[in-house]
Design goal:
- By secondary structure, the protein is of the alpha+beta class.
- Helices cover 33% and strands 31% of the residues.
- It is rod-shaped and about 145 Å long.
């Protein structure tokens, strides 16, 4: 009876990325892993297993830089949106206040009015006489008055202001008949 002696598999070889590869032997036209008797799949699985610490640190660093860039851009966009919203709010208030002053019958030439809105917007209105023309059959002349409105509000970067103006024609009431 003949005794068969089995050889021990060859030891594993260390590779650069911390993975261990089986020693492959050429058997015919295919390449097999000597210890586990599998084909090239064994070599591929073991050579691609895992990542080095340096690769992980680089990935985390790139991710951190990306997040910082994205969030700083988002923060700048939010500040710009806030500034534009405040400007729109002030512009709307100024338009409404100018319309209110235009319709006020008690507003005449060379007057000064001011105030503060509930939202903290300050305003100041000045009137100036632009032209005066006599009206036939009336003791009082017609007056063309310029209404100047200045609106101001506080921001993080300081005081902002907006100026609007319009013209108003004052025609005196005709005298009451007998």
């Amino acid at each position: 009876m003949q005794r068969v002696i089995q050889r021990r598999p060859e030891p594993l070889e260390p590779r650069s990325r911390g993975a261990w590869l089986c020693r492959a032997v050429q058997v015919g036209s295919s390449r097999h892993c000597a210890p586990c008797r599998r084909t090239k799949q064994c070599l591929r699985e073991q050579s691609e297993a895992g990542m080095s610490l340096l690769e992980v640190l680089m990935a985390i660093s790139l991710l951190g830089i990306s997040f910082v860039t994205i969030f700083s851009g988002l923060s700048a966009a939010l500040r710009a949106t806030d500034r534009l919203d405040r400007f729109d709010q002030s512009n709307e208030f100024a338009t409404l206040k100018l319309n209110e002053l235009f319709l006020d019958p008690s507003l005449g030439p060379d007057q000064l009015r001011s105030g503060v809105s509930p939202s903290g917007i300050q305003w100041q209105a000045r009137t100036q006489l632009v032209d005066e023309r006599p009206l036939p059959g009336s003791e009082k002349p017609a007056q063309l008055v310029r209404i100047l409105l200045q609106v101001s509000w506080r921001t993080r970067s300081g005081q902002q202001s907006l100026d609007l103006e319009t013209l108003k024609l004052f025609i005196p009431e005709p005298p009451a008949g007998p």
